[in-house]
């Protein structure tokens, strides 16, 4: 058998954890090989080893049957291995072209950069694979989807033959995912080999030839994708059966909790409003979901409701009270909780302990404050309770520093804090981003439970599966406007995609 | 494996102290080597004098150590306090100087205040002046995003020039081209400290300084206010998202830091030791000398007490070393080397971990070997 | 017209060393290492250059331009060596860069004075003879306006500094290595993934700051004195301010240095500017101009500061 | 620094240090020369803190280390000396005080018999410098003092009056730029200010403040103008130095140390002026264009016998060194216009 890549018995230990424990991965020439595993299973680590970012403690790597040493990305490049990283490796204030040539620059006199040939090659590649990138655009100005194409171009530009895609679809819209799959197939047809990491089983079913499953750093199995069902895959991944359907009763909406009325937001320097006359309501006992492609004003909507930004026009009411100009603190106090989109930037103080993070929004309340001093005993007791209740795992319980925890557990801590604040309105922005199925299931359950105990939930999500399974009502946002208000039962993913892409508008939302 | 001593050595604070001690040891060693090269004949004697100088003349020297530690303890505390909330308060020299000026102005000119409390009011006003001086970078940072390092540097010179002008206009002692000095009656009282530390320059200011360090520690670690300040320092965005007023926190942390620096200046010039503000356009060195104190003390207010005492101690020792032919700048070199190695904390801690682990492995291996 | 030439020449006196040292700091910070140590580097660079000069002059070994150029090399080399202490701490040991920078600021003058005192029997000042001023260049000095501005009564170091500015701009913004330096200061993970050694680049950045900082120390002291006292009067910190003011970009740094130079000049030469002299304000007011003007300007320009994103963040390969 | 023998001659510096190009340096040169020539241990000490307490402690520890003679250059030691001389422990130690007499709480007291205090009439060398400059043909003068100390002010006032008297003789009008730099250290700022003056027409600047001469001389060299040195003969520091206004601290200290070892030491307050050889201009007149040694000696004699009266700082202290605000002086300066910056 001709393997393009063989990673044999790879072991890699980080302080405190064996991220890879005797893992073997064999990728055939010209195949799309999926790599499946829960969060923290060790997929990214394994790939980083292949790409030369880490050195394995044990094990060897063969390329086309020949054993090789990959000490750094330059070596990887030498063996024509390229990688699209889970966290993009792009310099935000460089142009697309500069990012692509970085590390393999052509130079002329006095080391001056010579970009003309590179530019031509980039344009050619962009055209050939329908990538549509502008080589002179700055990274910070282009969409996430476009950034990913830059990452792909980086590989193509280097004429790589073995392409690693680490969770490329997490940040893409359905249409973009389709396009990516298309591109991947095209690449295969040219004889390249692809390693494809994703948590989404239908993507694996759609494109992958074979799939290697790892769990908690250990090798589980390699299967022919065509021969196994999604259920089998997920069972192998988590070690037990998984329930994909969110159990929930019919929503029984009562009083209006949140009312957004004609909200318009145009920051200084922007030439068009990012939010345009947005109006909607969220009632007690329902989960309303804002769906849409990333960058259509969802973040801005949340910032305006939660008070980070001040709207240009329009009003926000909470329980009938106008809170448009009140401070964030006042909003929290009058019944608003937010699970922010960016957990590291907005959700946690990473250098605080779990316990300190648990009271981040309530430290000044009588439960935790005595004459200006913090009641540490009360804090710890409260935190221990939440940790127990929400199964937040960390080394030293309440005392653990948040920075040292895995992403999933950090997220659980935030969810615990926000839900337990028992606020009338819970705004949850991408609460399950990048988490594994187990964690996702748990968080979804909590959100539904919260709804059922007489609270209003505003969910903002890019994941269509989540949108359809969790919400009671879907509002689709496109270019800063609400373009549809639909019932999840009456709609499928395809149609939702049309609304999201702006090619269709809902009843009552016509132009 | 989890016995008590292991727990102690695993504590982060223990590791910090150990790594500080290692830094100090290396600094002293480097100092010794340098003296040996420069003057082998006197080297050992000089080194010994430096190490024991703080006790050279008994309680007198010790009292001097305590007295000299006060200004840098306060400027160090100022830097440490702001550093905890994420800002590098390089404007300390200016804050220190305006504090000194206002305190002297009151000490000398506000004769309507009774002697018994004049010093206290002067210290408070000095602190407020320092706070005001730090308020400018604070508000510029909060409202206009001006980098605190650059505004601090500018405010240092503005303060220096204005203080000199102020001294010339209000409290000028023309025969010496310096400010008037506070009379012993209106100086900070000694409350018996002069009996314990006979002949030294110590006064009650030392107690105030230590008390302020402790208060700062309590504010930082025990109060909701400190909780807000630290949260802002670690992650401004998260603090804001959680409903804290991060603008206020930035301003307040700098203002409090400025207050400490101002009090430091006030205490230094109200000691009744004849210390006067000079009319020369040079920033007071105590300001910048606070930086190593804060850094050696891990930006911990209590750490600042020990760090300033240590620095004062070897400086007093260094002063006695002048009886030999060794340039006393070797003290500055030693302190610099110590600060340099203090920056290795992270590395030293990792090494400590490695060392412990390998010992663990060895004992384990030995046990297994024994079992076979 | 004479007054214009004069003000220009004085502006250079302040601006040139500030610019060179700030450019040095720029390389360090654009590569991701905060360099608070500029003051210490200037002092040690000035010290070694003057020490060398003193030796050459008193022993009559070398004089004039050759001496100046070799002295600049000595300053640059020693500055570079000294800055390696910072690089080692910041890059290899992932130290707190504020701390190691501060340590170097203390070490610079202490070491300089200690060495001087030890070798010169307690004397800490090192004298030198200024034989480097060029009073006029044949031909060139006859060019109208430019001739008077640039080719009369000047120091060759001015031209060296201008050359350094142009080269710095070209190097940082147009060359391969410049691109790599910038990538390490913004996103070292990306640079690493592109096969660039972040460590090497950061050593390079810090080393360049040592070279330019060291030269800056010598260039600072040459025209203004006849001896070196192991002090640069806070100009290293001012250079840091210029670097921030100049938004970490070469041409803006030059602009900031000149702005500061002009205000400083006016603060001390107001007597010969009729309009300013007429105001007859107390001299403190004039002396305050540079600092207050900078503060005001900053208040209006700081909203979108472009500090390198990874500036001051130790690079840890295994951190994601 | 110094030798390895028991330190009998000690000098204590104030914050200036032994390189201040002023009294610390001059005094140290005397100590060093004597110590080396006569094989006595000598050393200088830097106090741990620059205040009265710090000075006292340093004096005590110098004596403890064996000092028999303690040289204290500078007025900063006045209060410290006031206390020390009362302490009988130190009655066998000889003190040489430069530029001050002891004080108690800022009020003057008489020096004890083991305390020699020298102060100088700086206005006299200042006067001679101004007189010589104008007589030599200069009409636009400058005065840059370091910090407005009485000594510095006296140099400056003397300089103005000397220039005035010469101008009167020549029937000329003279302008003088006049300032205190606020520091005794060199700096780009001082060089700029000096260059600005030279550019504005000033022909010669009297640099009167320690190391600021580094910057003033550099400016003079740049503009091809002239300067006047201070305290010691600075002709070797720069070719632009036409002459120097001397106050011979080195001589004073050397004389007193010798007196101690010859058992001729006699305490008390001494004002040194033209009647001794402690003040004057430098002996080399070659850098003047027309001014001759004979002219100088004539003028010197007038000062010595008291014919020439010179106003000083103490005639109007409230002006803080601003000659334009010093009423008597202002009236006396008939032929001089002072442009004061400060
Ligand atoms: N540099 C590191 N230092 C310490 N631990 C690490 C490091 N990188 C990864 N880990 C840990 O190793 C384990 C495997 O991480 P890895 O990123 O490879 O998982 P993954 O399978 O890619 O997960 P995900 O689906 O979340 O991307 C995790 O527990 C992670 O926390
Ligand atoms: N600050 C963040 N906010 C929101 N999502 C994030 C953030 N950081 C990372 N993510 C997403 O979380 C996913 C996993 O991140 P990461 O690899 O850091 O977690 P992890 O250490 O593997 O944690 P776990 O194993 O618990 O999932 C990624 O897909 C990424 O998109
Ligand atoms: Mg992960
Ligand atoms: Mg991963």
TrEMBL record, chain B:
Keywords on record? Cell membrane, Membrane, Transmembrane, Transmembrane helix
Pfam families according to UniProt: BPD_transp_2
Q: Where in the cell is it found?
A: Cell membrane
* Bilayer-crossing regions: 21-41, 65-83, 95-112, 118-136, 148-167, 202-220, 249-271, 291-314, 326-348
InterPro entries named in the record: ABC_transp_permease
Record-level GO cellular component terms: plasma membrane
Q: How does it sit in the membrane?
A: Multi-pass membrane protein
Q: Which GO terms describe its molecular function?
A: transmembrane transporter activity
Superkingdom: Bacteria
This one is known as ABC transporter permease protein
Q: What species is given as this protein's source?
A: Kandleria vitulina DSM 20405
UniProtKB/TrEMBL annotation, chain C:
Instruction: Tell me one GO molecular function of this protein.
Output: transmembrane transporter activity
- Stretches that traverse the bilayer: 7-27, 33-55, 67-89, 154-172, 203-222, 234-251
Q: What membrane topology does the annotation report for this chain? A: Multi-pass membrane protein
Give the highest taxon in the source lineage: Bacteria
Q: Which UniProt keywords apply?
A: Cell membrane, Membrane, Transmembrane, Transmembrane helix
Pfam families for the chain = BPD_transp_2
Q: Where's it found, cell-wise?
A: Cell membrane
InterPro entries in UniProt: ABC_transp_permease (IPR001851)
What CDD domains does the entry give? TM_PBP1_transp_TpRbsC_like
Q: What's one GO-annotated cellular component? A: plasma membrane
What is the name attached to this protein's record? Carbohydrate uptake ABC superfamily, ATP binding cassette transporter, membrane protein
Lineage per the UniProt record:
Bacteria, Bacillati, Bacillota, Erysipelotrichia, Erysipelotrichales
